[in-house]
């Protein structure tokens, strides 16, 4: 029953800090994704757990046992790679059974384990085929069957879905989660795609520049991000800059920059005159021609629109020149380019963050 | 399509086989000047082969390619006057030139570099989110950054016709989303470009293109604006590829003009009749976003009952899979609202909006074959 603790893990490549004091705990039977942009260190964590990378500092514990210096082959881990890593000269059967042979299992054992693994992922009918005759999803199924047949309770996955078509990806991720849960495995899955992470994970660890910024369930991460970076990475949000003008109980009024419109936010935690970044997810903005309440109603001009099928994205310009984006269900739209409209949003959907003093807030989003 | 516009690219009856399997069958297409076309279809549909044929990287077995009215079949790729960016091509940036120099190289070589092109390069760097990296060299950049530079360079070669094969493919999901918008801005800002862009990403195609060419198994099934393709698909293939839709087989069980009743194996729904007669076998497409779920039944018309099999939260949307009384499973995507959410095995009522239901004549063969996943 894998329970993994990572303590103060650091790793540098020259001057670049790939991992900067990372702490992480993964619970037994948990499906955790490591999410972040390229170069954030997520793959380095995975490779350190696998033993393919040696950290400069820190330790990795499996069920309380320090395995930091253990060679990879002694760690009892199943691993699945982005580019499948199947042997082109071996057929499906030989690819899947390869690690079992290395371990010196008997033919009877091998057959029992491998057939079960191949049946699970649905690759059994193609047992005699060679990799060149398989599609990308089939190749990844071979990779998965091979990882399952190691019998390891810990599965490490490095972007296993990124080479699959978007529609296959949807289906495959449901299957993958079902298999992992069905076998009672602990999975750590690296991805840069927030949609995949949200669909598949029990918890997501969001990373940036070698650090973990937040670990939470998909819904917590989406609705309660702890930084503007998290907010930007997990959702399509608008960022507006302003200063606290008035403080009341449990709410405050923020004046947007350039003596812009006022926005009421659901907190009294900030001091008057504090400079803030407000965030509003673009799918939480509604359009109307008439005023429907007294607060959080802004005038906006539609300056661009992008049809995305079920949804349409509007670019809006506020009175102070600030830009916003709103995502509206296409079937609800009576508005078009050039119209001046009122937009509104619910007070509970506005989050506020301290303006990052040392840098432009746009840099804090990257 | 706007018939007054001058045609830049014309394909006539292009066919291509790989061994005996047809990759492209009788493709004819006209692409006007100054338009943005996406060729969109699933893996193996022939879309990349078609682009490579336009580029001259592959020869068709049959058919002609005209660019600017000139027959191109025997013209080498480099003499076709095309800017291109192909997937899996190395980005081929010059290692000894800075990012800025790489961008402007094409225009320098052609001797058309000017103050104007320097301005364009600056603007391009800003749009590519690389403004602060202008003086950097390729070796210190990530793969994603190099891809963005390669994209910028392809747009800036000075060529009128630009071919892009999955130009945003190798990028991080988040950057990819941002760059879609910028790509359109870049193309419109330059003003003189005609772009043919191959992608299997539906949202990308809907967002960037003036026209989408929907291609399946080597054949063009539909050409139209994003709105036409999404709202008025001409086939089950196009409908299933471009939206998340539920497909059900049924038959017209009654006509009560202007409405028609459709029997979906035990469940009856009512739609506006469009030229169907009683007894016709049909396939009904209902998009997952055009449905809503509530607890209680409030009407006898166009409400279905079922129980929740599973649900999945993603980016503010809850995706429900619901088993109907006839054991069919329907997918509903609904905005997440903590006050209106349903659990596994909960009995729910689904409301259909008949104007958003698309009805196709039954193809006569297995429906599964027609649904593109």
Key terms:
heterodimer, A: 366 residues, alpha+beta, Rossmann fold, OB fold (Dihydrolipoamide Acetyltransferase, E2P), five-stranded antiparallel beta sheet, 25% helix, B: OB fold (Dihydrolipoamide Acetyltransferase, E2P), six-stranded mixed beta sheet
Biggest interface pair, counts: A-B, 35 and 36 residues
* CATH class annotation of the largest domain in chain A: Alpha Beta
CATH superfamily of the largest domain in chain B: P-loop containing nucleotide triphosphate hydrolases
Question: What is the helix/strand order of chain B?
Answer: EEEHEEEHHHEHEHEEHHEEEEEEEEEEH
Structural class of chain B: alpha+beta
CATH topology type of the largest domain in chain A? Rossmann fold
Strand order of the largest sheet of chain A: 6-7-8-3-9-10
**Oligomeric state of the chains in view:** heterodimer
Number of domains of chain A: 2
One letter per element, helices H and strands E, the order of chain A comes to: EEEHEEEHHHEHEHEEHHEEEEEEEEEEH
CATH topology of the largest domain in chain B: Rossmann fold
Rg for CA atoms of chain A: 25 Å
SS-based structural class of chain A? Answer: alpha+beta
Write a brief structural summary.
The complex is a heterodimer of chains A (366) and B (373). Chain A is α+β, with helices and mostly antiparallel strands and 366 residues long. Chain A is 25% helix and 36% strand.
Question: Could you explain how this protein is built, in words?
Answer:
The complex is a heterodimer of chains A (366) and B (373). With 366 residues, chain A is of the alpha+beta class. Chain A is built from nine helices and 20 strands. In chain A, strand 16 (297-308) and strand 17 (311-318) form a beta hairpin. In chain A, helix 2 runs parallel beside helix 4 (136-149) and helix 3 (107-121) crosses helix 4 (136-149). The radius of gyration of chain A is 25 Å and the shape is elongated. The model of chain A has no long low-confidence stretch (mean pLDDT 90). In chain B, helix 2 (99-109) packs antiparallel against helix 3, helix 2 (99-109) runs parallel beside helix 4 and helix 3 (115-127) runs antiparallel to helix 5 (173-190). In chain B, 24% of the residues lie in helices and 36% in strands. Chain B is built from nine helices and 20 strands. In chain B, strand 4 (62-67) and strand 5 form a beta hairpin. Chain B has two domains: 7-237, 3-Layer(aba) Sandwich (Rossmann fold); 244-370, RNA polymerase II/Efflux pump adaptor protein, barrel-sandwich hybrid domain (OB fold (Dihydrolipoamide Acetyltransferase, E2P)), CATH 2.40.50. In chain B, the strands form four sheets. In chain B, strands 6-7-8-3-9-10 form a six-stranded mixed beta sheet, sandwiched between helices. A five-stranded antiparallel beta sheet of chain B has the order 13-12-11-14-20. A five-stranded antiparallel beta sheet of chain B has the order 15-19-16-17-18, with no helix packed on it. The longest helix of chain B has 18 residues, at 173-190. Classes of the chains: A alpha+beta (366), B alpha+beta (373). At the A-B interface, helix 5, helix 6, helix 7, helix 8 and strand 16 of A face helix 5, helix 6, helix 7 and strand 16 of B.
